[in-house]
Amino acid sequence: MKEQITRRIFNGLIYVHILHHGNIGEFxxxxxxxxxxxxxxxxxxGTLYPLLKSMVEENLIExxxxxxxxxxxxxxxxxxxxxxxxxxxxxxxxxxxxxIELQ
Length: 103
Description:
The protein has four helices and three strands, in the order H-E-H-H-E-E-H. Helix 1 packs across helix 4.
């Protein structure tokens, strides 16, 4: 049960992480996988790319295909809607952490 709850929380935080990095600048999928690994998230391409696709469809991030050394690489960045959501999520997380610290 504890592992399921931890996994659900981590999955939600992955969204925040993606929005955060897309707000800072553009990123591509394999870079994001490595970035998430550095923070303790073990996410496979089979999990990340459908998540990115759904975030594009929800207009939270946008995708641009670029030719890099003869291969098409997809670059992502946060949209205005995604930035607004990120701002709201950060405020919610700050409020939650402040409540937890006070108790």
